[in-house]
Specification:
Blueprint lengths: L1 H15 L4 H8 L3 H13 L16 H11 L3 E5 L8 H15 L5 E4 L3 H9 L10 E4 L13 H12 L2 E2 L11 H9 L1 H11 L3 E5 L8 H4 L1 H5 L1 H6 L4 E3 L2 E3 L27 E5 L6 H9 L5 E5 H8 L1
Parallel strand pairs: 1-9, 2-3, 2-5, 3-4, 5-8, 8-9
Antiparallel strand pairs: 6-7
């Protein structure tokens, strides 16, 4: 009875009065670690029951947890579908909030390209500057087409919003030949950008669908290399590299000429945030998850339901 009385009193002070464990420890003349053990014991004995009212505030908790467990992810963020299609503005808003939650001043952030990352950049807004943070592109550019989604443009947008630094990658996304790609990659100015990206704390990537649905194949570059895509057994792309269902980017007539970050090295980056949604991208996202190429996924509820099933 005395032990139970003590547990009740400590629990009351901690949960109802808002006292810290250190403050309670001083009152009872014991260590803070012992107070922590008493609180755990109070929960085990049923003296304290913790109930989280999550139904209306977080309706996607179960599906997020299921995908996190299934693929071993740090976190999944599910964005509600407000209409029939994918709401890029909403996804960008959720992604920008997540980025600001984990971003610390002085970090290095790698940035791929694409419409979802453009939406993220547009929605980004910070009250404090990140004057020691550096944004670095991890893929080359696609000529004069859709310049607004190029990695170089995106890093400058991120840096402007957060009052941070940025680097440019002066290289095309695809070289004329494998030999030309190797020549580009040997240039010190290009090497230095990719070496900086390897030190990134965070990398932001979009995920493209199969060649049939990919933004790449609809571009002028894609039309030029259309015959290559017919040869590919690919389910999607990441960093402009087409991948198979296991998340591997095999050697082929397209991948061998792409100037981008080595996707195998994504596995060494602490936070790799994949921002993607859409029924046409489900198989691609699964492949990226199977390959452990990202550890955070931000998607919408319809896509999440298909990934979690």
């Amino acid at each position: 009875m005395e032990d139970r009385r003590l547990l009740v009193k400590i629990s009351h002070m901690y949960y109802l009065e808002g006292a810290t464990q250190s403050e309670i420890a001083k009152v009872f003349g014991v260590s803070r670690s012992l107070i922590s053990k008493y609180l755990s014991k109070a929960r085990e004995a049923g003296i304290v029951e913790i109930k989280i009212h999550d139904g209306s505030h977080h309706p996607f908790m179960n599906i997020e947890a299921r995908i996190e467990k299934k693929y071993g992810l740090r976190e999944v963020i599910c964005v509600p579908n407000l209409g029939n299609g994918t709401d890029l503005d909403s996804i960008g808003t959720y992604a920008s909030r997540y980025l600001l939650r984990i971003l610390k001043n002085g970090q290095i952030v790698g940035v791929s390209s694409g419409t979802t990352l453009l939406s993220l950049a547009k929605q980004l807004s910070a009250k404090l500057p990140y004057a020691s943070t550096t944004f670095v592109p991890i893929v080359g550019g696609m000529g004069d087409e859709r310049v607004d989604i190029h990695a170089n443009v995106l890093v400058s947008m991120f840096a402007e919003k957060l009052k941070a630094h940025y680097k440019f990658l002066h290289a095309p996304v695809i070289a004329d030949s494998k030999k030309d790609k190797e020549l580009f990659m040997s240039q010190s100015s290009i090497q230095s950008v990719f070496e900086l990206a390897e030190k990134a704390d965070i990398i932001l990537v979009g995920i493209g669908g199969s060649p049939k649905h990919s933004t790449i194949t609809r571009s002028e570059i894609g039309k030029k290399y259309r015959q290559y895509f017919n040869e590919l057994d690919a389910v999607g792309d990441i960093c402009y590299k087409f991948i198979d269902e296991n998340g591997n980017a095999p050697s082929n007539s397209w991948n061998d000429k792409i100037i981008s970050f080595d996707i195998k090295k994504l596995k060494k980056i602490p936070f790799v945030i994949g921002v993607a949604a859409g029924v046409e991208k489900v198989e691609a996202i699964k492949a990226v998850l199977n390959g452990k190429l990202i550890n955070v996924l931000i998607t919408d509820e319809k896509t999440a339901e298909m990934l979690g099933s």
